[in-house]
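Workshop exercise sheet. Pairs work together: one partner reads the sequence aloud, the other fills in the structure field after running the prediction. Swap roles for the next sheet.
Pair: D.N. / O.F.
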Amino acid sequence: MRAGRTFALPGRTAAVAACLARKGTTMKSARIQPLAAAALAAVALTVLAPTAQARNVRLMESVSDSVRLSRVNDILGTLQMRFGSASSRGAEVVRRDVNVVGEGSTQLHDVGQDDSVRPSDQGLCARAFEAAVTRLAFAARDARATAIVGVVSVNDGKVFDDPDHFECHAGTLKASVSLRAQLVRGPVDVPVISPPAAVAPPPAPIPVAPDAPPPPAATFQPLPPVPAPAPN
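Structure field:
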């Protein structure tokens, strides 16, 4: 920006927004180098950081969606991972109740051309989920486990137990995921809570006899005429 030019806006957030709004024209006129742009983004994150703890939104995120948005499959490799406490039944536990916390933060490269600084809640939760799974994967390999099962969310002593979702707490610039898991060895047997009822096959059709051919038409043969009596 040009030397000697100052401005005052109400609140630090508004000031950062004004700086980012002027980013496009300022870069064109003053030809700011990429390092200066990164410094501007760092200032934005630093100014907004004190308010990061003011927001705490509890979200129920999909496990499958978060796996798709992250590198969880690459991190797990050959390790199996099952959510829900029921998935640990009958397994050989080698390390019990492993608790981990993962955090997903806003990064400098998140500052886009549209001056947006913060990713979506889903994106931050996916980063936090990836960080938590990474810690579980390290613990599993250290214990020589073959699977991570019975995974549940634990926050403030409250357990959220669901086979398809986990709990995430999203703030202004970061999100947090707290998981508890059982590390097991050997095959994983996931019980079926309510197996579908067997469907009886439809009854076999009753064979129908083909229609009998119609009886032959009656034949009528007239009797030969009675000869007349001979005259006396």
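Discussion prompt: Residues 1-32, 34-45, 47-52, 191-197 have pLDDT under 50 and may be disordered. What would you look at next?
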